[in-house]
Amino acid sequence: MNTKHLRTLTIVLALSLLASCAPRAATPTAEPNGASSPANLILGAYTTPREAYGELIPLFAAQWKDKAGQEVTFEESYLGSGAQSRAIVEGFEADVAALSLDGDIRKIADAGLITHDWHTPPYNGMVSTSIVSFAVRKGNPENIHDWADLAKPGLKILTPDPKTSGGAQWNILALYGAALRGQVEGIPAGDEAAAIEFLKSVLTNVIALDKGARESITNFETGNGDVAITYENEILVGQEAGQDYELIIPKSTILIENPVAVVDEYVDQHGTREVAEAFVRFLFSKEAQEIFAKHGLRSLDAEVVEATRAQYPPVTDLFTIGDQFGGWAEAGPKFFGDTGIYSRAITQVQAP
Amino acid sequence: MTTAAPTLTSRKTTRPAPWGRWALKSAAFSYLAVLLVIPLIVIFRDGLSEGVGGLWQAISLPIAWSALKLTLWTSAVMAVINAVMGTMTAYVLVRYTFPGKSVLNAVVDLPLAIPTLVTGVMLVLLYGPQSLIGGWFQDQFGWGIIFARPGIVLALLFINYPFVVRAVQPVLENFERDAEEAAATLGAGSLTIFWRVTLPALWLPIASGALLSFARAIGEFGSIVIVSGNLPLRTQTAAVYLLGEVESANRQGASAMSIVMLSLAFGLVLFVDWLRQRGQQEPAP
Amino acid sequence: MSALPPDSAKARGASARPGRISGPLDIWRRRLMVGIVILYAAVLIVAPIVGLLAGALADGVGAIVSALSQPDVLAAFKLTVYIALVTVAIHGVFGTILAWVLVRYRFRGRWLVNGLIDLPFAVSPVVVGYMLLLLFGRSGMLAPLLDVFHIKVAFAVPGMILATLFVTLPFLPREVIPVLSAFGLEQEQAAATLGASGWQTFWRVTFPALRWGFIYGIILVFARALGEFGAVLVIGGGIQGRTETVTLFIFRALDERQYVGAYSSALALGLLSLLLVVGTDLLRKRVKRE
Asked: How far is residue A292's CA from residue C40's CA, in Å, rounded to a whole number?
């Protein structure tokens, strides 16, 4: 055996060694979880509650260890709500889906991956709420106080892309709803045509459509735009991280309700149903709700709401998608389908 | 060196025994099939599932069409600028000596080593509205660099810098200067010499380099997604549009755009290959 | 036939021939040209890199080191390098075979194979990811097959490896083919008459001549694999701890406002690729000189 053979052999050996210690995430086992074997839970969430889950996960893991004696590790993915929903349908084996809007969970159910009704007590399947609001530069130089101000010519607006971002869809519905309810200066209540015109005038001012709410606000932070339409949650988290933009809450806005659901198909495949359901139950607990409130999300727990009233002032005219639009089943196609109100508006507006 | 005693029966060919040849050929072709051909077939089948009419319908949607136009336009602008500056760079590297020449030589190769995502990050850092340069441009002229079309062209120029330079350089190096000197003795000025004598010999490498950078630019994603702003009908390129379609599970739109981009890429690659082959066949001037 | 900048090393090694003595106008013209080119390169290429350095160093070198030692970053680097190594191994073997078949054998449709080899160079990474999703996604063509064997491709590392294999395919053949074409058959035939088998001929006679083309091709594959982004984003999903490469980590870090982490990783990645490419090149020049 000469040096050349030796060299080949060494290379092959080295490669196989490397291959054997290749990074492998904890492979999900198909056996039912014993109290001893560790569990791996995969969370697919939208972009905004990153920080909240950052705190919730270790807390739950510690509690679960005490209660059930089992180690649980988490893998997390944060994408725009629509993108995440699509990923799960395409094969991303999330055990728990925590998305921005109910419609996106429904898409997963429609694909047969969720087989139970997630609209259960205590909060009808919703784990947190927020409201659509505006982020403006320090000192509010453009004087933005309500929806009508967004139509000011020359104003530069950031909002994410409804194609992939749940937050973006909430934004559009909030705008439209406020207009329809007569809460926007100059727009008569119930006037759909006028509302569409108003939508177009605001869309004219949009300078970038980012993939998700988080991308949109970080874009805003790089100096782009005069105002960003986004979840109140995003703005609060950003402020927490040291950003100096200001939060403006319009008079009338929509209640953003965020659902969470166990993905039946995958938890059964992975054998993680018990942990997953426990995790979801945990999210409804007062403790978790307090943590959500800490990270910019409005809680659903009545006590927590009372306690955080100062931080989360009530909105003058708060409406829900159920009241105003008949729920996501109706609103989704009506606005964001191929010939939806938004889809047509954005095309008409952006024509160069 | 060999273990067998040399024999007098010579092999007719150096090639492995017929079964060996078959094995190698099938290995090579399966490799290509698995990695390239099958995915391509799958996507063509998917996009054409509604026929060419269906494909046309999906691609002629204003947003899709506009993304395509923007992509072609910015790539073409970049290719032209790249052709000029790339040729100049090659010329300077081959014909002149100057301080920092080896540095310039190395700099030309840098874009090849830098991941495109990193390129996007760098450009936003340097030219974004909060930066010194970007902010100044914004204030003085009202021009945006990032999140506007110039940013796209800038990113594409960065990434494709090496291609014209490295295509022209070897040809220029091997270029016989007799014709140039002859022209000089006949009284032609430097500019005329360059224009009439040197440049015509270079058009092939310039064209193939520029076309190659054009082809690459059409598919560029990593830098553009960071730099462009993604506004439909304004700053959304084909690749970013495609990502949106994929992420919102619009299969028809995604497959249609993919087919168009793939066809363009393949056509251009074949053309560039043909040009290069011609270049190798043409006798040196 | 190469779609790559042909033999960059050779191009780079050329020295300028002294120009003819020219008048003052020519000297100024020359200075102007050099100046323009240098300005262009400085503004286009160097400035952004300096900007990145500045961004990464914003909080000092210590911050860079601690950012790079975060478990997330280390895991991302591990995964990226692993994928790159597997890619190199596969292309090393099959790419060479492909090059051999292309050069040494006759067959119809050679132009097509040539074009196919160059194609990944111009295909958008998003298209690559999407094609793989169509094949291996839950509703993909091969989904039933994968189910039977319990193999996960989409949103898992195998899918990312396939994507990376696609985009790096041209690099090895493109470096090896010119060398192989130039390498005459005589030595191989001589070996054959001495009784060497096909394999022995290849390994002892041909391959050593290909060595540098092969190595350079491998390095290019590796460097390109390190930087892959669009395709692995679409097929892998960027799941933290499972399918997050360094590029995907940078993308996420920007979202999480971990700017120093993002810039440091970007810098590390860029430096790594750069060192590989430039280093191999220098080595090759040195060996050629001996």
From this structure: 51
Question: What pLDDT is stored for residue B142 in this prediction?
Answer: 62
What's the gap between Cα C88 and its chain centre? 10
Q: Are residues A140 and A245 in the same domain?
A: yes
Q: What are phi and psi of A44, to 5 degrees?
A: -110, 110
Domain count, chain A: 2
DSSP letter (8 states) at residue A262: E
Range of the domain at A142: 129-256+313-350
Rounded mean pLDDT of chain A? 86
ipTM exceeding the 0.90 mark: no
Test A352 with B233 for CB contact under 8 angstroms. Answer: yes
Nearest CA in chain C to A76: C240
- Asked if B230's CB is within 8 angstroms of A347's CB, the reply is no
Q: What is the tally of structural domains in chain B?
A: 2
In chain C, which residue's Cα lies nearest the Cα of A212?
A: C255
Q: What is the Cα–Cα distance from B109 to C275, expressed in whole angstroms?
A: 12
How far A76 CA lies from chain C's nearest CA (Å)? 6
Helix intervals (H) in chain C: 8-13, 24-41, 47-56, 61-68, 71-104, 110-118, 125-136, 143-149, 157-168, 171-182, 185-193, 198-200, 207-226, 230-236, 246-255, 259-289
A211 touches chain B (CB under 8 A): yes
Asked if the Cβ–Cβ distance from C89 to A15 is below 8 Å, we say yes
Distance CA B46, CA B254 (A): 10
**Domain carrying residue B269:** 51-281
Q: Which chains lie within 8 Å of chain B at 3 or more CB pairs, if any? A: A, C
Q: A79: part of which helix (H) or strand (E)?
A: strand A72-79
Q: Are residues B62 and A80, on separate chains, in Cβ contact within 8 Å?
A: no
Of A273, A351, A244, the C-alpha closest to A96 is: A273
Same domain, residue pair A178 and A318:
yes
List pLDDT tens digits, range C169-197: 999 999 899 888 887 777 777 877 887 77
Q: 3-class SS at C144?
A: helix
- Closest-approach residue (CA) in chain B for C191: B14
For residue A45, which of A60, A36, A57, A33 has the smallest C-alpha distance? A57
Instruction: Give the side-chain half-sphere CA count within 13 A for B170.
Output: 18
Residues of B in contact with A346 (CB under 8 A): 63, 232
Q: What is the pLDDT along chain A (352 residues), one digit of tens a residue?
A: 344 454 555 555 555 545 444 444 434 444 444 456 888 999 999 988 989 999 999 999 999 999 989 999 999 998 888 889 989 998 899 999 999 999 899 999 999 999 999 998 889 999 999 999 999 999 999 999 999 999 999 899 999 988 888 889 999 999 999 999 988 888 899 899 999 999 999 999 998 888 888 888 988 887 788 999 999 999 998 998 889 999 999 999 999 999 999 999 999 999 999 999 999 999 999 999 999 999 989 998 888 888 888 888 889 999 999 988 988 889 988 999 878 999 889 888 866 5
Spatial separation of the C-alpha atoms in residues B198 and B188, rounded to whole Å: 13
Residue C184 is encoded by which pair of tokens?
């005459």
CATH of domain C60-289: 1.10.3720.10
Residues B203 and B71 in one domain: yes
Q: Identify residues of A whose CB sits under 8 angstroms from chain C CBs.
A: 4, 15, 18-19, 22-23, 25, 42, 47, 50, 75-79, 87, 89-93, 111, 212, 214-215, 218, 221, 238, 241
Contacts of B130 in chain A (CB under 8 A): 222-223
Residues of A in contact with B257 (CB under 8 A): none
pTM of the model: 0.85
